[in-house]
Amino acid sequence: MRAARRTSQQQRPNAFLVRSGQALAWLLAGSSLGLSLWIIVPAPTRFLLPLGVGAPEISPWLAGLSAIAAIAVWLTHFRGKVAATREAIPAGIALGTCAIALSLSLLPLTQVSSTSDRIAAEMRSVLGPNYLAHVPPSLLDRLRPQPFQLQAALGGITPASEPIAIERGIVFATPADVPLRLNVYRPSAAGTYPTLVVIYGGAWQGGSPNSQETFSRYMAAQGYTVVAIDYRHAPQYPFPAQIEDVRAALTYLKTHGAELGADLTRLALMGRSAGAQLAAIAAYQQPQIIPIRAVVNYYGPVNLTTGYDNPPVPDPIDTRAVLRAFLGGTPDQVPNLYRQASPINYVRPGLPPTLLVYAGRDHVVQAKYGHNLYRQLQATGNQAVWLKVPWSEHAFDILFNGVGNQVALYYTERFLAWALYSSPL
Fold this sequence. Notes:
- The termini are far apart.
- The protein has an eight-stranded mixed beta sheet, with helices on both faces.
- It is globular.
- It is of the alpha/beta class.
- The protein has 14 helices and eight strands.
């Protein structure tokens, strides 16, 4: 009797440990599936949008989590004599959950090769088959060797070893007594360098020149002077205040560029989202304050009237509310402002070459609108490169070592090398 009681007492903690292990395995399986679903499920609200943005970009990590979950299920349900017939069905469900999660998490990775091949062909078609032939070898050596590297996704993108200098908070204008500042990132060696003016996004309502500083530091280490500029925010300051501020920054650069390390004969504009809309207008409208050699448009609004009339579904940021705050009304109330704020209305022959980078699953600025601008640029004889990342959501490049940004960065730095180091004036 006493021996049986001792055996029973020994089995209880063992059973507890087994059940705890099984619960942990189920938690891992459920978490991997719950996170991986955001690779294909669009975020319905602003609160959930980070999940829709992040999941595709960290898909290698999610694939690893799914594999770990599957191993945990196997060990806790099937190892030795632990498994019982009554546990086979739930164990099978758990393994099925892991398999679905793994399949979803691998979707972006399975598209990398074909996407990169398509973009590479586009670059050669638009810029020439040997478009990097005249880029200095010292710069070519700094370019990323592959569009996607698993070690970079897991451990981060390593920039060139070139030391950089950073100056923050330089006031370039004070419209309506609002101090507007810029940051400068450049190689530490004295001199001037090809220059990239960067305009942040944020629905014209937020952000600062410090936004996505990792990119600015990376490009400075590649041999560029990066000038990240500020602008006034809506709704307190509606359009055209923002484009006026961009032009004020360019005017400041025209006067102070040399002391900031900027080569004004080799200057490109780059913007993200709302910043891309401003960059496109500043590059396309006349007269130009500084000659613009190229434009890099990351998922920027193109036709604001059409965007208002046909918002995305789902619409996590409430596009119409954002546009009303930016422009002070609806397209019926202020039609002229909607036209003035739409880059597609500035398209004409003789514009700077444009790289258009859009996310295929964008539910803030739909990729089809960017493609409309691409077609219009080509129809008017301009050089335009279309770079679409099919698995990504809006603002995907905020995860600098993410799958989508690796591909976009690979071709963005090559486009800029061509535009600022080798293309004719």
